[in-house]
Design brief:
Layout: H1 2-10, E1 17-18, E2 21-22, H2 26-29, H3 32-45, H4 49-56, H5 60-65, H6 69-73, H7 89-100, H8 104-117, H9 121-133, H10 137-149, H11 160-172, H12 176-188, H13 196-219, H14 228-235, H15 254-258, H16 273-283, E3 313-315, E4 322-323, H17 326-335, E5 352-353, E6 355-361, E7 364-367, E8 379-380, E9 383-384
Antiparallel strand pairs: 1-2, 3-4, 3-5, 6-7, 8-9
Helix pairs in contact: 7-8, 8-9, 8-16, 9-10, 10-11, 11-12, 12-13
């Protein structure tokens, strides 16, 4: 809209005759560098692909300069948020143009689509790796889950050391789910030497960052900070020790949330375009299954499917839901699974179990623990924990 208004103002009649003189077209006289600079700002702030595409369709010049590598490299994730219902060769070519321009978000989005939806595992993982090299936290976390689950291969292809290292890097960049995953790895000795104290510290840090997100959103909409009672009333955080439902929220319960495995309930948590595409893609399948015997992650905001049977871990409380990660389990627990799972007295110590592919008896999953790989000197591929 900004570009179209500017173009309308600068265009002085398109060469019309005025008092015997031809009026100049000021828009066409603008240097390409200025137009590209405006388009870069537009692509980086667009709230949807249609906002950006509408400008490109205005005239031939904008259409040409709109696909300039510099413009495409600055495009935001929202400008690249292709919907699964609109997926076509044109959408694929557009994302590839952004990839060729070096757009980090395009690396990640197209990588997720190719890896999970198009089942082009090698190309998808390669694109996510390119985003990870550029310190893209969601790409680092997704690659960590691929290593933890052995996605795209066999169970023996799991690389817990690599998963922990990737999680540590994503956590360092501020990815809350990666921080929580790393905390559980240290608590359980999963892929790293067991360190319960350090694991709990990381879980507290993850919960504190979630709380900071709540306060930040509130601060942007009001001048006074919220009380702990307000947060409990509006964000429904779940204490690690169940409280009496007949009493009002106790402000002291606020402290329990920092030590909970599940953290705070962030209402209105925005879904990444890559996850939204996966949810829509597999949701359009008649039976909602990615393949015979394969299951989706039970957290509706994830969209990741299994790439082989019994790849994901199941809830040990009820055994009815499956998760690709601890992060998805925590989000799903806060959203609705807490009322569908085990009785109240079993909420404390709730966890997810690993499922071995080889141990399936009469169609029922048998949960046993994975082999833990210890890392010497508490160092994960050069990253200090």
């Amino acid at each position: 809209m900004m570009m179209m208004m500017m173009k309308k103002k600068l265009r002085g009649g398109g060469g019309a005759v005025y008092h015997g003189r031809t009026r100049s077209d000021l828009f066409d006289s603008l240097p390409d560098d200025i137009v590209i600079s405006v388009l870069c700002k537009l692509s980086s702030t667009a709230s949807s692909p249609s906002d950006f595409v509408a400008v490109l369709l205005t005239c031939k010049r904008l259409n040409k300069l709109g696909v300039h590598p510099l413009v495409l490299s600055k495009s935001s994730s929202k400008a690249l948020a292709v919907r699964a219902t609109n997926w076509c060769d044109g959408a694929h070519r557009f994302l590839k143009l952004c990839v060729n321009a070096g757009n980090t978000e395009a690396y990640y989005i197209l990588g997720m689509i190719r890896f999970y939806c198009l089942q082009n595992r090698g190309s998808g993982a390669s694109l996510m790796a390119k985003a990870a090299i550029k310190s893209h936290a969601p790409a680092l976390y997704s690659l960590a889950l691929i290593q933890f689950n052995g996605s795209g291969g066999f169970k023996n292809d799991k690389d817990l050391r690599a998963g922990v290292a990737l999680c540590a890097r994503a956590a360092f960049l501020g990815h809350i789910d990666a921080l929580r995953e790393l905390g559980h790895c240290l608590q359980d000795g999963y892929g790293v030497r067991k360190n319960i104290t350090e694991g709990r510290r990381l879980l507290v840090q993850a919960n504190a960052r979630e709380l900071a997100s709540v306060l930040r959103v509130f601060h942007n909409n009001t001048s006074s900070p919220p009380s702990s009672a307000w947060i409990f009333r509006n964000h429904q955080p779940q204490p690690i020790i169940p409280t009496n439902s007949n009493t009002a929220p106790n402000p002291t319960d606020f402290d329990f949330q920092l030590f909970s495995d599940y953290g705070f309930n962030l209402t209105g948590r925005e879904m990444h375009p890559a996850n939204r595409f996966l949810v829509e893609w597999f949701g359009s399948i008649d039976d909602g299954s990615p393949g015979q015997g394969l299951r989706m992650c039970s957290y509706k905001g994830c969209g990741r499917p299994e790439t082989r049977r019994n790849e994901f871990r199941r809830c040990s409380g009820c055994g009815k839901v499956n998760y690709c990660s601890r992060g998805c389990q925590a989000h799903d627990w806060r959203v609705h699974h807490k009322v569908e799972c085990a009785p109240m007295e079993e909420w404390v110590g709730h966890a997810i179990d690993d499922v071995e592919e080889e141990d399936i008896m009469n169609g029922d999953d048998v949960a046993i623990d994975d082999q833990t790989v210890e890392i010497e000197d508490g160092d994960v591929d050069g990253i200090q924990i």
